[in-house]
Specification:
The structure is a single chain. The protein has helices spanning about 10-45, 50-65, 70-95. It is mainly α. The chain is rod-shaped and about 80 Å long.
């Protein structure tokens, strides 16, 4: 006979793994969603790059607040927006040279 009793097994590692997988899913979904929104507004809706960037950033910040992500979420979204702004300005500058 087994000495196992239902509900006595330590499942703390399972909980940690589940939390990590949920965090990875939320982060990757948020990053992907912000990029898809930006490019949809830019190319699909034919909105200029700066308003598209601002709208995407505001939506990403609001999603982060709704999902109770911390300061890291907001920092990453702002850093992505700064990178996108620099890249968009560079492309606009290079396109204007021709």
């Amino acid at each position: 006979m087994s000495t196992y009793e239902r509900g006595t097994q330590d499942i703390s590692h399972h909980k940690d793994t589940y939390k990590l997988m949920m965090d990875i899913t939320i982060w990757s979904g948020g990053l992907l969603g912000a990029n898809i929104l930006f490019f949809t507004l830019l190319f699909g809706a034919k909105i200029a790059w700066f308003p598209s960037l601002v709208i995407s950033l505001v939506v990403a910040i609001l999603v982060g607040m709704f999902l109770k992500r911390g300061a890291a979420w907001h920092g990453v979204m702002i850093a992505m927006a700064i990178f996108a702004a620099i890249a968009s300005m560079a492309v606009s500058f290079l396109a204007g040279l021709g």
